[in-house]
Amino acid sequence: MNKHWWQEVVVYQIYPRSFNDSNGDGIGDLRGIIEKLDYLEKLGIGAIWLSPVYQSPNDDNGYDISDYEAIMDEFGTMADMDELLAEANKRQIKIVMDLVVNHTSDEHAWFVEAKKGKNNPYRDYYVWADPVDGQAPNELRSAFSGSAWEFDDASGQYYLHLFSKKQPDLNWEKSDVRQAVYDMMNFWIDKGIGGFRMDVIDLVGKVPLEGITGNGPHLHDYLQEMNQATFGQHDLLTVGETWGATPEIAKLYSDPERHELSMVFQFEHIGLDQQPGKEKWDLKPIDIAELKAVLVKWQTELGDEGWNSLFWNNHDLPRMLSRWGNDQEYRVASAKMLAILLHMMKGTPYIYQGEEIGMVNTPITDISQAEDIETINLYHERLAEGYTEADILTSINAKGRDNARRPIAWDASENGGFTTGTPWLALNANYQEINVEAALANPQSIFYTYQQLVQLRKDNPIMIWGDFELVSTVDEVFSYYRTYEGERWLVVTNFSNEAQPFTAEDEISAHVIDNGESVTTLKDITLQPWQAFVVKVN
Ligand code: GLC
Ligand code: CA
């Protein structure tokens, strides 16, 4: 396998709305990001995945795009974007753009045209279907509740929206649509971006009238075509969001010989605390043995036919520290343990904004405190289905997307220094304690563990290329070796609130990193709750 820059870096995800507000309107923006590039350089990351900054009416906070080649007014101008690229490049940081092309906004010029009538040249840029017996064409559901079909009075047809009604699905079967997407991608490539994160890319091969949404028959033909027409000649990071991927499916996307993407985000581990066959809102406790089995499978099955992405968090997921860590008594220890466990695995690690300072979930007590369309729709749907309000709020507090979208606290001043105005979404009430300034001032903070992990990766090829091998332990302990060119590292982590036993025959030859306690022997030791360490062994 050829080596690529995107295997060596750590990527940092920015959700611009919540990152840093430069002009006091309560909404994070591009100039706010530019102001914080020195902070990101200090963390050491090599790329930023920027959630969408394009023109959008914000039905789904920028994932509903009305113009792919313009910047959202609230975020700034194209000149600001160009400056962000230049300033990031100066610091050896690449910018990976979010590519949202399964759907557009209903306010995109293509859809405005398409709605004008069946004969409009843009009509079949989208997916239209006639009613069946006066009803929607089939039972397909929107990810944001309700039917995926919306009736258009004017033409008497339905259009498809796998997300909100304001996110009509593009028709990828039409080659003009694909060509328009490739032209737009080349517009951004020509600006010198570092790549694309591809939103729900597994859906673009859909055959909706046959009920097929994910992994459609022509999906990989389209991606090969896209690769050739756009980024194939450049060494860009391309990462597909693929919810249903198994290792076999992931290889189809990321086997270098197939010329599609660099890697995918797989979500198998993310689904482990939901009841099988139900929705993410239907909770069940995480079983660490199951989690290990899934992560080990991904570590070992891709081989040279793919490359892993490593993540605990993103803008759609609750904060992992609150979810499977311990955000109370062991907040610092468990945050560092999660970081060490993840960054020591094989693949490209992603840090979601605020993870590096140990930000936690923000429970709500009333639906009026929610901003996210998915959460609000779910609330009304479940209320109508007879769930109690308390049940629904429990699910929302565990899984709702607003948890990850609370503004970043930069210091202990009002609104955490995020804005001088009124934040679009309130900060977590703990911002006086958990904020960037406090983290930077404390050499023992979670921030410095992340910084150390990023630096270790730069200095030690074993972290990038080493083989992975699980060590057998009690269920709550997750331990593995990485081995590369005669060197061997042992990673030991306790994924629980209780002390746990651990033993290995190896002799320690050097310490690499730990989250508090360093060890002198590996024989018959007791791990403290959430303890994590990495040692070089003979
Ligand atoms: C992806 C995004 C999510 C968005 C959805 C529709 O899952 O990550 O935020 O709502 O696609 O674009
Ligand atoms: Ca602003």
Automatic annotation (TrEMBL):
GO MF terms, alphabetically ordered: alpha-amylase activity
* Pfam families hit by this protein: Alpha-amylase, SusG_C
The protein's matches in InterPro entries, at most eight in alphabetical order, are given as: GH, GH13_cat_dom, Glyco_hydro_b, O16G_dom_2, SusG-like_C
Against CDD domains, the record matches this protein to: AmyAc_SI_OligoGlu_DGase (cd11333)
Q: What is a biological process (GO) this protein takes part in?
A: oligosaccharide catabolic process
> Start and end of every Glycosyl hydrolase family 13 catalytic domain?
13-405
Checking Gene3D superfamilies in the record gives: Glycosidases, Golgi alpha-mannosidase II, Oligo-1,6-glucosidase, Domain 2
Q: Which UniProt keywords apply?
A: Glycosidase, Hydrolase
Q: Does the keyword Hydrolase apply?
A: yes
The similarity comment for this entry is: Belongs to the glycosyl hydrolase 13 family.
Q: Which NCBIfam families does the entry link to?
A: PRK10933.1
Question: What's the protein here called?
Answer: Glucan 1,6-alpha-glucosidase
Species classification: Bacteria, Bacillati, Bacillota, Bacilli, Lactobacillales
